[in-house]
Design a protein that fits this description.
Layout lengths: L8 E6 L7 H12 L3 E7 L6 E5 L2 E6 L4 H8 L5 H6 L4 H30 L4 H42 L4 H8 L3 H7 L2 H16 L3 E5 L1 H16 L5 E6 L14 H12 L5 E4 L2 H11 L6 E2 L18 H6 L6 E6 L8 H7 L6 E7 L5 H11 L6 E5 L3 H8 L4 E4 L5 H5 L3 H8 L4 E4 L2 H10 L2 E4 L4 H13 L1 H5 L4 H5 L7 H12 L37 H8 L3
Parallel strand pairs: 1-2, 1-5, 2-4, 5-6, 6-7, 7-8, 9-10, 9-12, 10-11, 12-13, 13-14
Antiparallel strand pairs: 3-4
Length: 553
Amino acid sequence: MTPSDHKPRVVMLVGNFVDGDSRVQKEARYAAAAGWDTYLVGRSPSGRREEYALGGATVVRAAETMTATRYRASHPHRRGFRGLVAYRSAELSRTRHQRQRLRQRDLGADRELLARRVADGAGALEVLGTRLVLGLRVLSVRLRGRWVAVRKGAFDRNYAAAAGGGPSSALERLLVRRGSEAAAWAAQPRLADFEDSFGRMADELAPDVLHANDAEMLGVAVRAAVRARAAGRRVAVVYDSHEYTAGDIRPEDVTWAPVITAQEAKYIPMADAVVTAVDNFADKLVEHHGLAVRPTVVRNMPEAATFSVPGGRGPGVRGRLGLGPEATLLVYPGSVTPIRGLDTAVRALPQLPEAHLALLVGSRAGHVAELAELAARLGVAERFHVLDYVPVEELTDFIASATAGVDTLRRIPTQELTITTKYWSYIGARLPVVVSDVKAAGELTRRLRNGEVFEVDDADGLATAVRKVAAERERYAAVYTDEMLAAHSWEGQVPALLEVYERVSGLRPEPGGAGGAGDDRGEDDGESDGGGGGRVPASRPDPAEAAESGARG
């Protein structure tokens, strides 16, 4: 390695709001502590550029308009017969409906005018002619109103179908599977939006290493590196695969997996190194893309400083809910979507009259609200609890007072292969686990003997597993020795990532900066919504000055 005349810079790109992503936050803080000039670039909930400090790193929330995404949302595909009559956009539909309301209301003014003419003594022929014209206009307005209603109704059904079933036509899905870039960018318009906002930040910050988190950022990073080389600067690209893209099946968005898998296949040969969060994912990347070097595995384990003692150091989640030690408390921190299978846990509650289920989430809308409605229908609403995310450095101690941690994943390829972030957090909290029998999590639980496994989607089986764990909680928790926890810490993972940075860049920074437990928030299982914003940007140097000082050869 050769020393640099400048402090080497790493820029990390992630397509979320940063706050809910514990992995990227730890990566940024520890890179800064190792001496890297570190920027973590994420999305901005306000749409405006925001900056704040995270340990020794700087978080930049990129200004973004999401133009392509907004356009796509307001111009759904015109499907089937209704596509022949539906308005082509939300704006046109609203405009035509607005004009029709004006026509209908204006008829009242026309009738009033006719009545005044009669009152003023207008002749019989004039009144007859005016009434005939008014009658024809009424008929025209009514017929046009029916046509507007038909077209608006067709558009509304198209819009609903696009929002609920994947915004794409059969032709577009075919083009996506055949590798069409235009179809891919149309089907997943945020790829175009991210290029606009994140690509601009990658150019401005002029890094030595670009760390692309997930495949949606891989193309952005590769294209930025190509532009840098054309300008005479070398930028190394590190691709960090958080998911098994080919297996990331999303029923609500049928083009996601084929689009993002094609993007990964195209750009991964141009990455200087590949990192992933799960051993199984590393094997799949080699299998799918013929990689000559197996990706470096950096598991998203909690920091040792956050490990708890049995039962926690404080009242934690049990105290927050006002529950006594006799209550069975199941806890789940992280992303909540239908494919996570949490309805199985809710459906098990009627069989567990002493049990409570607590979700720690970034938003109470969407599927969380649907689960609350399910709990109410089942008569268990008073034992179904929704709490806000807590800072990651507090998470393991907060959940340690629970009886068990649950992970109810359903069977899709990526979930069969993954160990979620929350599972590692359960270990750090010394919590027994109750998990579905997806391949990786089921096998690990049976090997560690730290909990029970139930069949996917089997509420009866989950209830049985909970009763077993609750009856012998101490036995399951006894496997969590200090030595075992030390082997499952972030501190044991991050050196491999830092070695990748040094290897691909040829640069070795001088250690320094702030590390350790910082300001992280939330859980990251690949789908986390981050819990939104709310931070006050920290004072920073002028961005143009920072870009100029970062423009190194």
